[in-house]
Amino acid sequence: MDYYLEQLSNGIAVGAIYALIALGYSMVYSILNLINFAHGYVIMVGSFVALSLIEAGLPPLLAIFLACCSGAVIAMAVERIAYRPVRHANRIVPMISALGAGLVLAAAAQLIWGPEVRSFPQLIPRFPVEIGGITLSSQSLIILAISLVLVIGASFFLHKTKFGIAAQCVCQDLPTAQLMGIPVNGVIVAIYALGGFLGVAGSVLFAMYFNAVFLQMGLMATTKAWAAAMLGGIGSFQGAFWGASCWAWLKPLR
Q1: Beta 128-131 vs 134-137: how paired, if at all?
Q2: pLDDT digits 0-9 by tens, 70-89
Q3: N or C: which end of the chain has fewer CB within 10 A?
């Protein structure tokens, strides 16, 4: 019984982390029907930026926020440099272009931070919490709460605001949205930025949960996040979240 409760606690945390990372994939795919292969590399760089800022003495919350912002800026640069010039080419072309951008990011990260696995500080307290006779980890519950707040906030932004309505128009019919005067390029780059911001938030939680930052973490996390997004329905905001959660909960039972 203790084993299953431990796995349930792990599933809550890991599912919430992968859900945040999967949202970056889903948002881009829902608008452009393209897989953002650079997403994993963007969030890896964001985690290293967070660690560097914390080691430089910045307050952890400020460091993480700035790291998430750096993820948004890098994602915007990837869209501008690797995607936009080939957006209307054959679908394989932007995917290869994004993969190339990702490899450049990986090389830059290795040059700056080195290939070694680095320890990430534990910023979330870990102690047992009893709910209805079930003991769970406080760290898992806090990670779940952070993920839910970010997912709900992003969902509100994309469904209840003027920008969100414009994004949905672009998602449904990009040429028509452009004819209606919607700044398509601005909407797309903002979607990339939001995906990068949420992805880095997920990767920092990943680093805290596993107490490690390393070059391959982006590829490892996004592979599982992509599987979760496929399970929940690629392109669906809520589907990415529930797909990641179900995947993490069911994984120990295989």
Answers
A1: antiparallel
A2: 999 999 999 888 888 887 78
A3: C
Does residue 152 register a pLDDT over 60? yes
State the SS3 of the chain.
CHHHHHHHHHHHHHHHHHHHHHHHHHHHHHHHCCCCCCHHHHHHHHHHHHHHHHHCCCCHHHHHHHHHHHHHHHHHHHHHHHHHHHCCCCCHHHHHHHHHHHHHHHHHHHHHHCCCCECCCCCCCCCEEEECCEEEEHHHHHHHHHHHHHHHHHHHHHHHCHHHHHHHHHHHCHHHHHHCCCCHHHHHHHHHHHHHHHHHHHHHHHHHHHCCECCCHHHHHHHHHHHHHHHHCCCCHHHHHHHHHHHHHHHHHC
Instruction: Supply the pTM of this predicted model.
Output: 0.85
The predicted-structure confidence for 185-214, as pLDDT tens digits, reads as follows: 888 888 889 889 988 998 898 898 888 899
Rounded mean pLDDT, 146-171: 83
- Please, which residues have CB within 8 angstroms of residue 246's CB and are 6 or more apart in sequence? 15, 228, 231, 232
Q: Which residues of 153-168 are buried (b: 16+ CB within 10 A; e: fewer)?
A: ebeeebeeeeebebbe
Please give the average per-residue pLDDT across 54-72, as a whole number.
94
Half-sphere exposure of 57 (CA within 13 A, CB side): 0
